[in-house]
UniProtKB/TrEMBL annotation:
Residues 105-155, 173-226 are annotated as: Disordered. InterPro entries: CS_dom, CS_DYX1C1, Dynein_assembly_factor_4, HSP20-like_chaperone, TPR-like_helical_dom_sf, TPR_rpt. GO terms for molecular function: nuclear estrogen receptor binding. Residues 201-213 have a biased composition (Basic and acidic residues). This is Dynein axonemal assembly factor 4.
Length: 414
């Protein structure tokens, strides 16, 4: 059975009634408010407030505001006058039950009408969108057809002009051929007369003289001089031998690095007051590195954190922040940042080997300082697998093994 709220308060003007209901620690999302012209319910389990109003109100304009541990309900009056009392004074349970059921039924009908109106509006919007889309598609088809017709007309006109030009050209060639034949006949007569006069002229197979033939050859343009264009390509050089190289992984790593540089998130609302260089992850990383070098680890964390908000895909930001957390003894945060850096340092290739080794060492160091030596040993072994000739790594790894086996004290590993 719900607990009835009795410590409410109310005020009024000639046009509105205001009711304040204390929520007794209830969350906003768990408050249920129902209002009709004669009934008000504020339900936040296990508490219940009911008001059987003495005068009718305009429930369509009624509002409720929830905040600071209180629900303020504003009820506009149907009749502008001051009420003598907020609720009816009857103790007739049947009458109250009847009012409550009538209010619930009215509220249900209102919800149904709103749902139906919403569905009709969605149907109307969908129909309008469909009609608009069909109209746009029709206009687009008409535009395309118009372009086709215009292009067809232009092509037809060009074809007709070309055909006319060809006819004229053919006609001109025919006239030139006839004229040439006429001149040739006349030339033959002249040559015969010259030959009869004792002069000999050497003719080629087409009836032209040797001098004219040489002149034609001289007038021809010289052939173009051939040449070569040298094209050079920058070779892809991998640090491993070709038979051992992992070209696809290398290419994927380079692609991820390029994408990470482009993934700048400078549109965050609270970051828009920063200067241009303060929105640059590279500048922030350099600033964090300088702070770390001077021992100002908190400032370095702030710089790396702001850079991460700008770009969450650069692994060195997480790895460097993990180093700061190690110095500040924020060991769990160091583990989280090192793990995030290792997730971004994939696929494992030679280009990110040193960064992966550093991230493993930092996470392993945090694990060991948290007395989780088995987990720390796994990270140191992973780092040693990447850099097997590192003597410091070999010494630290053996020291952790000795601690696990109980043959050495528990020093801090770095």
């Amino acid at each position: 059975m719900p607990l009835l709220v009795t410590d409410y308060s109310w005020t009024q003007t000639e046009s509105t009634v205001y009711i304040n209901v204390p929520l007794k620690g209830a969350k906003v999302g768990k408050v249920d408010i129902l209002c009709t012209d004669e009934y008000l319910k504020v339900h936040f389990p296990p508490y219940l407030f009911e008001a059987f109003l003495s005068e009718p109100v305009d429930d369509d304009r009624s509002t409720a505001k929830i905040g600071n541990g209180v629900a303020v309900v504003s009820l506009p009056k149907r009749n502008n006058k001051l009420w003598e009392q907020l609720m009816i004074t009857t103790n007739d349970k049947e009458k109250k039950k009847e009012i409550r059921e009538r209010a619930l039924q009215k509220h249900q009908e209102k919800l149904t009408a709103e749902s139906k109106a919403k569905a009709e509006k969605q149907h109307t919007d969908k129909k309008y969108a469909l009609e608009t889309m069909m109209k746009l598609e029709r206009e687009e088809r008409e535009s395309i057809q118009k372009m086709k017709d215009t292009e067809r007309e232009r092509t037809t006109a060009e074809l007709e002009a070309w055909q006319l030009k060809q006819k004229e050209k053919k006609k001109a060639e025919e006239e030139a051929r006839l004229k040439l034949q006429s001149q040739k006949g006349h030339g033959d007569k002249v040559n015969k007369s010259r030959c009869s006069g004792g002069r000999k002229v050497k003719l080629d197979g087409r009836g032209s003289s040797e001098a004219e033939s040489k002149k034609k050859h001289v007038d021809l343009p010289a052939p173009r001089v051939p040449g070569n264009i040298q094209v050079s390509f920058t070779p892809r050089v991998f640090p491993t031998a070709l038979r051992e190289s992992r070209v696809p992984e290398e290419e994927e790593w380079l692609k991820k690095q390029a994408e990470a540089r482009r993934a700048v998130n400078a549109d965050v609302e609270e970051l828009k007051d920063l200067t241009e260089e303060e929105r640059n992850p590279d500048w922030l990383k350099e600033k964090g590195d300088k702070c770390f070098a001077t021992g100002n680890y908190l400032s370095a964390v702030n710089a790396y954190s702001l850079a991460i908000r700008m770009n969450r895909k650069i692994p060195s930001l997480y790895s460097n922040r993990a180093a700061c957390h190690l110095k500040l003894r924020n060991l769990h945060k160091a583990v989280e940042d090192s793990s995030q850096a290792l997730e971004l340092l994939t696929p494992p290739v030679a280009a990110n080997a040193a960064a992966r080794a550093r991230a493993h060492v930092r996470r392993g160091s945090a694990f060991c300082q948290l007395q989780l030596h088995a987990e720390g040993l796994q990270d140191y072994q992973a780092a040693l697998k990447i850099d097997p000739h590192n003597e410091a790594l070999q010494t630290d790894t053996q020291r952790i093994r000795d601690i696990i086996q109980g043959t050495a004290a528990d020093p801090e590993t770095h």
